[in-house]
Amino acid sequence: MSDSLPAPAQAALQAFADQPGWEQRARLLMQWGERLEPLDVAERDERHRVRGCESAVWLVAQRRGAGWQFRAASEARLLRGLLALLLARVDGLPAAELASLDLADWFARLGLSRQLSPSRSNGLNAVLARMRALIAEDGRATDGSPGAGPSENAPPGA
Amino acid sequence: MTLSSPWRTDFPALAALDAQGQTYLDNAATAQKPRAVLKALSAYYLNGAANVHRAQHLPADRATRAFEATRLGVARAFGAASPAQIVFTRGATEAFNLLAYGLERHVGAGDEIVVSALEHHANLLPWQQLAKRRGAQLVVLPLDDRGDIDLAAAAQRIGPRTRVLAVSQLSNVLGRWQPVAELAALARRQGAFSVVDGAQGAVHGRHDLAALGCDFYAFSSHKLFGPEGVGVLYGRETALAALAPWQFGGEMVREADYQDALFHDAPMGFEAGTPPVAGVIGLGAALDYLNGLDALALADHEAALHAALLTGLAGRDGIRLLGEPHTALACFRVDGVHHADLAHLLGEQGIAIRAGSHCAMPLYRRLGLDGAIRVSLAPYTDGDDLQRFFQALDRALELLR
């Protein structure tokens, strides 16, 4: 199924698949984290803060045609790497595909399944939940008006 | 390090964790169980489970005796004059919630509930919410530079409007013994109820609660080497008599009709529904096990381990300890390194520690920190555990810096 992966995801899979040791994986994660497109200071605000993460995480989502573009930031370096791997997989996907995507499987293929386990408080699960909530919310807001312009995320109840 | 623990083999899970490559240093969250507890649990189930207090058959009689033997054991271990002063709950958290509801009628609008700045959420949020329900004020006692509740400030703030004082005996973040006897005396002078959170303190010392002078004291079984799902609430007799029942159902009722009911006094009146019978019996076995240990040797071992932990941390560049812990644990941060990154890499190396704000978010906010790493010790911890931790710490920091 790797043939249907976006190009950045293909690259991630290639890079991580051959890393047997935790040290190599950690180094690679930190390298990937450095590639995250930085957020403006103004974007690192409460509006974009993802609740439920031990370390601060910000998620900015923008609709781009039928798909979504995400940008994310964190204070923790390894989490930045995990976010980069997440974005590599989901960026540009149509909403329907994103909602049904098996992300546990994605991280398992990268050899990082432990990072997604329910007991972990690193926030990856919270980021996924937030992405899905934003898309669901946007789906409701723009119901019956396809092709609505780009919308930016706001936390529920904001 | 040659710190070996003569008690390690009493805890079968330690060998299992060793085999899994896991070094367990999260004992302040939950402790492993001695074989005696596992045996008591399986004996109860293998010989016939039964509900307590309400049947005439033999299994119920046996279960009730074992259950009540734990109550007596707890009373003896903590200096209570009578087993009727020991109420079983589902955990320390439930004990504080019981108190916050049971004491509600004693708190009115404009009254004050006093807590300290270092409280665990379990001994903060029930009081915060009680204050909200009653229009009362939550007063927060400040800490001094070492991380102790400031007694001089406390003497000022515990006043005639104070109805309840709720403080922790041993901080789960700062690892320091708090002056709870002095604080309880301040509360008593103002006619306020005093509540002590012994969740950490009960594990690291023997306490005579009558001498401590508090009205209530609560702890959890699972940190004291017993099963999860059991808590203990100790109360002075007059303080227990001031509590209103909070959960209603079987067991706690004396007389029931459709429109009205009469309830038992403590302890039964606060144990609605089927209690965690096996868990309570398991806690009894844990206490028996602890009573059989050489208390002096245990204290020496814990002190030596703690000293080794602090020395190892102090010997590494850029490590900042939170406060000056007396015992059992150390929380620390590393300059230029996010605690989540360090926790991630320690986890990769099989080191079970805790990162984050340790259920004390307001305390961390007050310290101006977003979290830390906590290493916490137990009698079965040994020098090899610490050595593995320090090796892993060094490798993690090498990668991160």
Description of the structure:
The complex is a heterodimer of chains A (158) and B (401). Chain A is 43% helix and 10% strand. With 158 residues, chain A is mainly alpha-helical. Chain A has a single domain, classed as Sufe protein. Chain: A. Chain A has a two-stranded antiparallel ribbon with strand order 1-2. In chain A, helix 2 (22-34) crosses helix 3 (77-90). The longest helix of chain A is centred in the last third of the chain and has 18 residues, at 124-141. The radius of gyration of chain A is 15 Å and the shape is globular. Chain B has 401 residues and is α/β, with parallel strands linked by helices. Chain B folds into two domains: 8-25 and 294-400, Aspartate Aminotransferase, domain 1 (Alpha-Beta Complex); 38-291, Aspartate Aminotransferase, domain 2 (3-Layer(aba) Sandwich), CATH 3.40.640. In chain B, the strands form four sheets. Chain B has a seven-stranded mixed sheet with strand order 2-8-7-6-5-3-4, sandwiched between helices. A four-stranded antiparallel sheet of chain B has the order 11-12-15-14, covered by helices on one side. In chain B, strands 1-13 form a two-stranded parallel ribbon. In chain B, helix 8 links the parallel strand 6 (193-197) and strand 7 (216-220). In chain B, helix 4 packs parallel to helix 5 (125-134). The interface between A and B is medium-sized, with 16 and 16 residues.
